[in-house]
Amino acid sequence: MYHSILAISDHPLQQLKGKIEEERLGAEKWADFTNTLRNREAAQDALNLLDKSLNILKNVNSKVLSDEEYKVLGWVSTAPFSDAQTRAQESRLAVFSGSQGLWAAGKSVLCRPEQDISQTMKSFPSINLEQRLAKDVETFVRAQLDGGSLRELDADTKVLVIDTLLLSRERRFRWADLQVKRLEECRTDDHIKEALRTIPDSLEATYQTIIDNIAERDRSIARGILIPMCFSAAPLDLQTVADSVSLRSSRHVMDICTTSLLSTSGEEVRLAHFSVKEFLVSEDAVGNICRFSERAAKDHLAKKTVDCISCQTEELNQEMAAIKPFLAYASCHWQAYVAALVDINPQNADLGRKIDSLFTEPTVYFNWSRIADSYAITNDNQWNKLRSECKPAIDRATEMGLVGPVDTPVNQGADPLQSWKAMSWCPLKRAALEGRLKIVELLLRKNITISTELAKALIGLVKHDVEVEHALEGVLKALLDRGVLQDTARGPSESISEHIVSYAMTNRYSGLLILNIFLDWRDRGLVSVPITGDVMRCAVVFSSPAEEMLELLSRRSQEGFYISPTMFIDTGGLPMLFDGIAALARRRPAKLPLSDALLEGMAIKCDSATMDTLLQARPDIKVTEKILVAAAQNNLGVDMLKLLWPLREPGASITEDVLTSAAKSRSPIILKLLIDKLQPSVQLTETVMKSIIGNWECGLSMMKTILDDPRVTFEVSEPLISMAASTTQAPLEMLDLLVNNSETEVHITEDIVCAAAGNIIYSSSVLEYLSHLEARPLPVTEKVVMGAIRNPKTLEILFEKCPNAPITDRVSLGACSYADQMRLLLDKPHGVLPIEKMVEKLSNNYLDSCVVLDLLFERNILTVNEQLVETLAASYGPLNTLLNQRPDAPITAAQGRQNHGGGYDCHHKSGECLEIIQGISHRTGSVPITERLFREAMSYGQVDVVKWMFDQRPDMNITIESLFHEIWQDGSIEWQSRLAAWMVLSSHTGKSEISTSLLETYQYSAEHKENYDFDEFVHVFGDLEVSESERVAEIVFERCNIPAVEDFLKHRPKIIVTDSLVQAAEKNVIANRDALMSLLEKRK
After folding, report:
1. Partner of 548 at 20 to 30 A CA spacing, among 43, 476, 898, 945?
2. For residue 199, is it left (φ>0), alpha (ψ between -120 and 50) or beta?
3. pLDDT at 910
4. pLDDT number for residue 38
5. Residues with Cβ < 8 Å from 130, sequence gap 6 or more?
6. Residues paired with residue 15 on neighbouring β-strands, in sequence order
7. Which bin fits 457, alpha (ψ -120 to 50), beta or left (φ > 0)?
8. 160 Cβ partners below 8 Å, 6+ apart?
9. 198-201: long-range contacts at Cβ-Cβ below 8 A with a sequence spacing of 24 or more?
10. What's the confidence (pLDDT) of residue 649?
């Protein structure tokens, strides 16, 4: 491939930069030039073109590259280059690391399949690199003879070497480099002559000679080494490679394969050159044991890794696993090799059975899952875990998308609806969310209970692959067959539930396809699909992409779609996204339900063309000052304000609010337009200036605009300096503009330093800038240290500049939420830490809580006692860290009961109660489960805990229904506990509606004028499914205060005030009678 990228990278170039063609969206055409005299001028022209392109593409001057990016920077080679090539590679690195834009362009090319690159390259003129680089090959060979490894040869032999190598038709540097190495190994002149006489005529022939020279007994071992080297899923070290083929010593790896095929860097081993893989991997490799097809290699690696794991039938500890490096590699990467197969070859049915065994054999699964997790980013010590604490096999198999290993555990009793951890997805929802549709359909066909609530959740989150859309229809058909998609409120029905259709609207990934499938079923006479006002509301407010959804409804709706005049009142307000509103305004402007809030939202979020369409259809719209305020902050620029300004109401003017809104916008042009209309002079207030400085997108350009305009003035104040010190958009330049344009001397105050310390990106440079504005040291107080507490680098700089910075109890408490900051503080001289308060804070399970706890244990600052265990039991993470550090921590049965109760309170904050209880149960062997604990779990809405406790105590003579009614009718119970108990009951029964009869039995005493917080319960009706019967309204009118009645009416705007409702209101002893009757009168 002389005219490909591979050929380019095969030569020692002094400079290689990508020439970027704008119309191809990145680097699609690459050219290079050698660093010879004849090409110097051309190379300079290429560099000039590149520099011009970089100025357009790059947004930053430098970039810290990720591991993935460094891999790409290795080009297509997985090996170090020769000395000459290394110099060229360094040039490439210099180019890539200097530009984020070029990196993105390079990645767009290099990350694509080689065939795709080759096909695309055909549309560009080819470059004959043989002609250009023949001279460079000669330069390389002569350099080796003159001062390199062949310099000791006599003159005649050197001439023979030059004539032989340079007369060859092969022009690749890799070939020349290998021939030089071959000559280096010759011990006599005769050997050199023989080597030159038998020199391979191509790079491929050279590699074949190297393979042929491997001893017969070692060739199968060499194959076992070379296959993973060609298809490694991660960097490999010598010990891992040696272990994979059972070599007694890692040095034998290089002895067998030689430096011509492999190279090392420390302990890491890789292919010596990308061309090694090109030679070894061949679809025509029959009869050559060391060459193989890609399919054969992946088959081999899948079997090899799975076999390695499945034979580990003895439970391993950390020390035993450490001496099995290939087991670690296999545990982390076997699934990648299996996934690469696409399907399991029928001839390899044994592989499928072994994959299943990785999940069904408890010891095998326990071993490899702990090894794999120990290499993942986790705060847990995997080797201290019990089997019951590891991620269930069904969850892991679901995440990997493996149908068989999901099917088997379910057949053996695993519950695909059970979440492994609190706040995590159950396997069925996880499969839906990740588009594992074969698994979703498999589970839906199992004998498990699928509630209507679960069906709604699945419809709302399921993803699909465009290439297998039929799989999504299979999932929907499984739900239809179960009867959970249909509207069963009035008995058996073939109508898709309105709620199901609405949930489909909210699915941004698959909503369009789901609705299309439903409508296809309708057209085939299988179901009916309601397109009601509520469905349209979801389409407008929640669907994405809304434009396509409305177009689909418009095209396929049989009766046209209905737009409710109360559409946005029904939703409780306006949506965050206005795409649907804009689409509706363009399609049905005369029908769009208008309000002041909606018009203001459109002025901010919609384009001017949409607003113009609306204004022409609705000439009664008044452009108020509030709408101007909104338009001044339009997301798309100045056009909206230009449209609305001439249409403003009399008296609407440019106020501070309008200017402030413009200062927050994404366009400096908006602010300039307003300033032009305020001639001859403008005094900007501190409020407006704060908005300009705080505008991270274009605040700097706005500042330059007003400073360049002699009509505009403002006063530089301490709050403005503080704002500039805290901004993340060019703070140094912003500070410089303010300081240089201040009429008075700027003094650095505690508030300014505190603002700089809190700058999450530029704190160090801002602090450095401020330190040079005054001769005196910066005022570093407790407040300043607390301002820097979120940024470890800033904290480090503060301590360097002010070694005596105060480390108070408040600072220690602030730092204990962050691992790096806590480490910094502990390394400094400090007094007695407020350890009890710190532990209490850490028990709230902050992001770094577990790491900080590990740190405190390492420094021997924590003492394990019953009080510590009791405090950390408030959250699973900290408790688990404690048990990992001290497996013998004193957890007593009494503490188990106490923490069990505390766990419920904790769940109210973090949702981890079940994990806490299970963690204690695993360590103590049991948790006392009594009726009181069942009742408490119900009162806190602990659905998973109640289910778990019933599983543990099937002998308990109680039911969820009886517990619920006991709690519901208990006058001493708060309304939140009643609601929580109902949530448990709803999850258990699958019935999501709060019935009229249930509300009838809610505690109420007219005699004592006590409704037991029924008002609060009514306030959350908008988030619940509550019966629509008139009797519900009567109960509310009879028992609630005015705010609760108003809230109820807000969520039921269509309610008709009947005589029975008035009679119910007349019985009300809670609310002010006159005010209540007046409210009802207004609704008649």
Report:
1. 476
2. beta
3. 32
4. 33
5. 2, 171
6. 33
7. alpha
8. 192, 193, 196
9. 199/164, 199/165, 199/168, 201/168, 201/169, 201/170
10. 93
**pTM of structure:** 0.67
Q: Are 193 and 234 in contact (CB under 8 A)?
A: no
The 3-state DSSP class for residue 1005 equals strand
Q: What pLDDT digit, counting tens, does each position of 367-398 carry?
A: 999 999 988 766 667 887 888 888 999 999 99
> Rounded to 5, what percent of the chain is helix, strand, coil?
60, 5, 35
User: Hey, what are 252's tokens?
Assistant: 């034998």
pLDDT digits (tens, 9 = 90+) for 155-168: 888 888 888 888 88
- What is the sign, positive or negative, of the torsion defined by CA atoms of 572, 574, 575, 576? negative
Give pLDDT, residue 490: 57
Number of separate helices (H) and strands (E) present in the chain: 64, 7
Q: Name the CA radius of gyration of the chain, rounded.
A: 36
Cβ contact 967:977 at 8 Å: yes
Tell me how crowded residue 668 is: count the other CB atoms within 10 A of its CB. Answer: 23
The pLDDT value given to residue 894? 44
Residues shown for the chain? 1084
Handedness of CA 270, 276, 280, 281 (dihedral sign): positive
Chain mean position to CA 878: 24
Which pLDDT does position 126 carry in this prediction? 64
pLDDT (0 to 100) of residue 290: 92
- Residues 6 or more apart from 301 whose CB is under 8 A from it? 227, 228, 231, 337
User: In the structure encoding, which two tokens stand for residue 11, read together?
Assistant: 């030569």
CA distance 150 to 154: 9
Amino acid at 1016: E
Give every residue of the chain whose pLDDT is below 70, as ranges.
1-133, 342-348, 377-380, 422-423, 466-467, 489-492, 569-575, 845-846, 874, 876, 891-916, 918-920, 922-928
- How far is it, in rounded angstroms, from Cα 723 to Cα 1021? 43
User: What 3 state SS string does 421-445 have?
Assistant: CCCCCCHHHHHHHCCCHHHHHHHHC
The secondary element (H helix, E strand) that includes residue 993 is strand 993-994
Cα gap 878→916, rounded to integer Å: 10
Largest distance between two CA atoms of the chain: 122
**For the chain, domain boundaries:** 131-199, 450-564, 592-714, 955-1082
The span from the CA of 245 to the CA of 255, in Å, is: 14
Please, which residues have CB within 8 angstroms of residue 919's CB and are 6 or more apart in sequence? Answer: 389, 876, 879, 880, 883
Distance CA 560, CA 856 (A): 66
Phi-psi sector, 990: left (phi>0), alpha (psi -120 to 50), beta: left
